[in-house]
Amino acid sequence: MSRPSWMSRRLSCSRWLGCGLALLALGDSVATSQPRPRLRASGVLNGRATVPLVTLPAEWLYLDPDGARREPLVTEAAVYVPLRSGKVVALARQDGTRLWETSPGVATAGTLYRLGDRLVACATRPPADGDAATGVVRLLDLATGVVQREISLPRPITSNLVSDGVRLYARLGATEVAALDPGDFSILWRVSGDFTEHLTCDGDGLLAGLTAGALWSLRAADGARQWACELGAQPGPAAGDAERVYCGTAQGDAVAIRRADGRIRWRRRTGGAIAAPPLIDRGRALFASYDNFLYAFDGARGEMQWRQQMAGRLTAPPTPLTETTLAVAALDDGEITIVSRLDGRIVARWQLADERLFSALCRAPGLLIAATERGIAAVKL
């Protein structure tokens, strides 16, 4: 005797329902057997669509193709821009008025560095007659731009200069890191290795990444290696607190390393490469990832406390804006996202009228200053 069609449909639904309940039960048993990440932020966008986007008018703009996407140096009075032509331009911080401009020279490498009342511009002198390229360091008067001294180096400086107040440190060429005397830039010590351009002063040591996937701690006094931490992928810039050193990797790992011996304390995976230095903020380590997310991990245990999705790819760290907020700018995007330091909640969304951002945000009293696709922009807060 054949079943009525309605009965066949009911039996079929019962079988599917039974399979579904069995899969749910299996999923619950698997989930309860594994630790769950502690993620306090609710939702991926966390209410982004409900926060209005406010356009900020530019307080001033410096538009020059040679200055496009060139990270500025911001001081208490001026903004200094290294141009591709080899010039350096000084602008008044409050209104962008041009204060001075140097004559053309060899193109600067890396960012500008302030050394007391002087501006340090590092450049590469092209090779001649088959010789290797050499380095040039120009010391400029901050107030006038007059070149006070020009120093030749056997190899060009190919990283940003960093200082511990006693010595300067830089990568020379592609295969060595050196300590330099801040008075005459003579080489105090050098260490060979396939180093990245990311150097960080850390107490009595210098943190240097290697392209092969390790982070070294070098003793500041003589360059002796204190420890080496194998990360398995090229590290980005590092930052540290009293007990740990933090860095991201090209594979998207956020890593905490014990300062005492270089052992990994914890490691957490994000969805994209981490090219920005972490921001250490009130016991948390904040990592900006190329997967568009800003992550906040507990510094001691590595537990994720929150994450927040931004408007685009993140290649620069967040900028402290107020006691309770951070400003985050995505690469090649006009939006600046303001998030709560406590839980990552989006509290404001700003955009530049006609500019797209290409550097970290520089906080100055009443202003945010950054490199854009056309030059330098300053917006009033």
Brief rundown of the structure:
This protein is mainly beta and 381 residues long. It contains one helix and 33 strands.
What can you see in these coordinates?
- The termini are far apart.
- The protein has one helix at 5-32; strands at residues 53-56, 58-63, 73-74, 78-82, 88-92, 98-101, 113-115, 118-125, 134-141, 147-153, 162-163, 168-172, 176-180, 187-192, 195-202, 205-210, 214-219, 225-230, 235-240, 244-249, 253-258, 264-269, 279-281, 284-288, 293-298, 304-309, 319-320, 325-329, 335-340, 346-352, 362-364, 367-371, 375-380.
- The model is unreliable at 1-45 (pLDDT under 50).
- It has one domain (39-380): Methylamine Dehydrogenase, Chain H, CATH 2.130.10.
- The strands form eight sheets. It has a five-stranded mixed beta sheet with strand order 1-30-29-28-27, with no helix packed on it. Strands 2-33-32-31 form a four-stranded antiparallel beta sheet, with no helix packed on it. Strands 3-4-5-6 form a four-stranded antiparallel beta sheet, with no helix packed on it.
- It has 381 residues and is mainly beta.
- It contains one helix and 33 strands.
